[in-house]
What does this fold into?
Amino acid sequence: MNTLFIGAGSMAHALLKGALRAGVLKKEEVYVTNRCNQHKLDEIVEEFGVGKYNQDTRYDTVILAMKPKDFHDAAQSVRTFLSSDTLVISLLAGITIEHIREQLSFNGAVARAMPNTSAAVGKSATAVSFNPSTTHFHREWTTALFESVGTAVEVDESKLDLITALSGSGPAYIYYVAELLKDAAVELGLEKELAEGLITQTISGASAMLEKSGLEAQELRKNVTSPGGTTEAGIAALEEYEMKDAFIHCVSSAKKRSEFLGEMMNMQSPKS
It folds into this structure.
């Protein structure tokens, strides 16, 4: 199953690494092209043993892995890679399936996915939406592709802006919490390196508990929070400063931005 990656950035790299390791992709059936950075393209080709775009090759799957802002300029050339039975997989934040089909003048199968940067370590949380033209095989294969770099769930496309705000941007929120905890620890007298090590392990351990304990986050929190204890005092301070409202505003703002960027892309697009 010949697959063409259009774009050679970090997400393409992470997907290639995971999918080749899992056997979802075979290196002799993978091709990559990158419009702007020849050096990155050469690095990926050398690292994974895949091929560069070949105009004589028929592609079963085309993965849109360029930056969203570059999609419209690339659309005309992308059309030349497509046939009626090609599966197009988009990693482009904010750009709808309908808009992709319009710009590509394409009536075939399209999947739209929102992985996150944790794909680089095989821990992405990916949401995928499919249009009605996709077959059962398309859906199974696409799900397997993203499961090779973490977990994958199928969702209605109407939820993707919210999921972009939640899990797409989510790693940055966790990094920000780690950053703030480190700053607090240092300000209160702990050495930076010691604080960073303790925080990293604490977040890793808490993540493992969420994944493996079978308990919800609220129950895990309550199990740690003894009446009159240190954790209760810390949680009370977070509630006093309305941390819940801050996170609601955080996710809501990111969702609105995703919607806005998608609308802007649609307004700025050249007519087919």
The chain has two domains: 3-159, 169-241. The chain has a mean pLDDT of 94.
